[in-house]
Every structure is written in structure tokens, then in C-alpha cells.
Amino acid sequence: MKLRADQTGNRGLPMPLWLQGGLEAAQAAFISAIVVILPLVGVWATDGFQDRNVDSLARLGGQAWLLIHGVPLELAQVNIGTAAQPGSGLLSLFPLGLTLIPFLLSWRAGRRLARASYTDQLWQAFFGAFVVYAAFGTATGFICRTPEVGINLWFAMTIPLISFGLGMIVGARREAGSWSRLIGVDAVAWLAKTSQHSRWAGSYVGSALKAGFVATMASVCLAALLLAVTIVWHWTDIIAVYEGLKAGAMGGAVLTIAQLGYLPNLVIFALSWSTGAGFSLGVGSTAGPLGTAVGPLPALPVLGALPAGQLEFGVMALALPVVAGILAGWWFLREGENHFDEWLSIKIKARWFTAAVSTLFLGALIGSVAGLLGGALAWIARGSAGVGRLTEIGPHPLWMAVWLAAEVGIGVVIGYAVGPWLERSQKQREANLDEAAYDDEHA
């Protein structure tokens, strides 16, 4: 990208990388703001807001833009429900689905900046982008503060950089193709300087970390499937809530968009539910596979899919993280090398003992990795609605980590133990197919 010297199309001086990074950041900020404010404009145009002032609409759009970036909003006291219960607090339950909007825009910006930069110059483009995006967040927080909604300017300046910076790094890495081309560090050459024992230990730990990630992603996918089945099963209840709200076409569309924005949060809630840790929908409420006990809830259609009462077959959901652990154990058997088992076999000759200890240790290691990742997801997905008793929503990160680690660890032990049998069965099937194809060819 270069600055044009005139209108003839001739190119002049190259654009400085810091300026190009700033322009990319400004573009991502404006596009994400437009995407967020358009549904609000639709509700405003159909008389969906009591305050018809354009300034109030703009401030609401800015507050929504900060919320999808994870910036908490300080809500003033309001009256909630028929009991006129005063409630005030921090609105920190942000929609992970809508956070994908700035993430994808920054991912695109990161790719473009990596394409325009040399390895030792990329920091200039990133510096300009971060400065502009931080300034945009600070300005938005300053302008959109109201007596009803308070915004910490330090949070408004720094927190949006998390999703934006992550997208920039992922996009630049995708364009560069490797970390060595991106940051100028050759990992292969660095590893070649280490000892063989260090490489073996690093290979073992690296494979275990990847297996823990596999277990976590498999658990999330199974939880998403569980959530989809639950929504379909309670579809009539969800439609009944929609009909009771009478929000109209535009209001129903915006409500649906908001629920889709919180869909990743609900997947993490379902993951915690399937582990047995459960989750909260308000102070003093619990929802778990053995039963649900919650108080009055907001009239959100998606909450109609919440299982209620005692669940006879809810305990079967505990098998989902175990299945994810089995997949992770099998994956480690296929992709990793159990150097700890080899080292232990050299030290101790009793094979029955070394095999059992190394497998249990592998299950504990991969389960711990999955538990840490699951706890981090729970911490990101949970939050506060800022009003009344809805100040605790979502799973408890510690209990989520403990339950997920234990169940995944059990699954890893099973998967790693039965993996050789599965591999032999698969190879036998492949051999039979090859033999059948050979016979057909020479028939």
C-alpha cells in the first residue's frame, strides 16, 4: 500500500507501516461499530425505544460496541420486577459470538499488514494499529458515559485490544505461514542446540498439550451437540416465549441476533452442565445434570430450553467429557511418543508397573491441561447481568476445571489403553480391503 502522488495512478512514496496499521485499525473499528449499531437503528426506527433522541441511540451503540469487546458497564440502580427490587452492578456478561466481529476484522487486518511488512518491521504496523484502536476505545468510553451507565476509561482503552490483538496475531501468523517467518526466530535451529533428553521431554510435553487441546475441543463440540438437541427438544417452549413477548418482526429479529451472540456462552454453559459442575442463573440458583433449581428468570426465549426439575437420565451427560478424553488418548497414541513410558521402562523392569504408572500419569497430565483450558473458557463465558439477583451467571471456573480434568483424565486412560486394539482393527480392515481390491483386479 503506497501513497499516490497524483490522480494519474502513479505511485509515490511508500506509506509508513505505522500509518498503514493505524488505517487498518480504524477500518476495523468503524466497520464493527456499524455492524453493531445497525440492529439498534432498526429498533429505533420502529419506535422500539422510549427515548427517540439520536444521541441516546449513538451512546447505546457505543456501549454495545464496548460490551462485545468485553468492557464491563457499570449500571446505576433500577427497579426490577413487580417487587421493585433495587439492583445495580456490573454488566460483564459479554456475547462471545458478537466478539467474533472485531476478531475477524482484525484477522483480516493482520494478514494485510503481514503481507506489507518484512519480518523485522511488523512491530511498526502493529504499534500503529494498537495505538489507534486504543484511542478509539477510549473515545467511545468517554463519549458514551451516562449517569445510568458508567464506563471505566482504562478498561475501555485496554480490554478491546485483547480480541483485536489476538485477531491481528492469528491473521499475521496465517499469512506468514510459520512463526519463524513472522518473528524471525527459527524454532528448529533453536531446538537443534538442546540435548536429546530435552528434545524428548519437550516432544512428550508438547504432544500432551496438544492432546489436552483436542480433549477440550472435543468436549466443546459434544456440548454444542447437546445444546442443539436440547433446543430442538424444547422448541415449542421457546416459540411460546417468543409469542408471549409480542416484540414484532424487528424486535424479534434483534432479540434473535442477541441470543445468537450469546450462543458460544451457552455452549460453555452446556459443557459445564455435562461435566456435573453445573452453572448458575442468578444468586442461589443451580442448573446441573441431576436437577435444576432456579428462581424467576428473564423472558428470554432460549431459556425455555433449560431442563427443569429432577432429570432421570441427566447423569448420562457425564459420559461426554469421558468420550472426549478417549478421543484425546487415542490421538496421543497415534501422534505422540510416550517418552516418559520409555524412560520409566529403562529404570524399572516390571512392565506391568511402568505401563500402569505411565498411563495414569499421561491421563493426569492431559486431564490437567483440559481442565485448565475448560476453566479459562468458563471464566470468559461467565459474568453478571448487573441487575437484581442476576449478578452470578455461568459456571464456576474452579469446579469446571476440576470436574473436566477428572473426567477427561479417565477417558484418556481408557483411550490410550484400548488404542492399540483399535489400531490393529483398523489396519486389519484396511488389509482386507486391499486384498479384496487385488482379487477383483485380477479376477
Automatic annotation (TrEMBL):
It holds the Pfam family DUF6350. It comes from the Bacteria. The chain crosses the membrane at residues 25-45, 90-110, 122-143, 149-172, 213-235, 247-271, 278-301, 313-333, 353-380, 400-419. Keywords: Membrane, Transmembrane, Transmembrane helix. This is Integral membrane protein. It comes from Paenarthrobacter aurescens (Arthrobacter aurescens).
